[in-house]
Amino acid sequence: MAGEAGFPAVRLDDDALDVTRRLAELHLPGLIVVDDENRPLTILPGSQVLRFLIPRYVQDDPALARVIDESHADRLRANLEGRRVADLLPAEKLPLPLADADDTALEIAALMARTRSPLVAVVEDGRLLGVVTSTGLLERLLAG
């Protein structure tokens, strides 16, 4: 089973603001980060981008989120300016589930369930061929 066509992958040195905009515009749960030879390195989930954007004190005390006005929230975007994808990643890389190009939909579904990842990188000879998302896989599995 091949990955979803056209699913964007990003590199460590890509602009964080551009990548975050793409993530939001395409309504993706995350992105696969690849090296210069298109080998998957890790996953950048949207939740990790939020962890980077939201100040730690707000994460630690969610009641503060209620008292911060929307104009201040709009300024969070400035946290991404001049940053790279590498800056958004946690210190410990998130495990990236890998599937072979000939894996079945059920094999990939089992891998997603086991790893609790909304993305699986489909690779051949270590290089990224495509990506399967949980929503795309559910559509395929539930098609009647």
From TrEMBL:
One Pfam match: CBS
Name by which UniProt lists this protein: CBS domain-containing protein
Ranges of residues in domain CBS: 91-144
Signal peptide, first to last residue: none
UniProt keyword annotations, A-Z: CBS domain
InterPro entries: CBS_dom (IPR000644), CBS_dom_sf (IPR046342)
Listed CDD domains: CBS_pair_bac
The UniProt record lists the keyword Cytoplasm: no
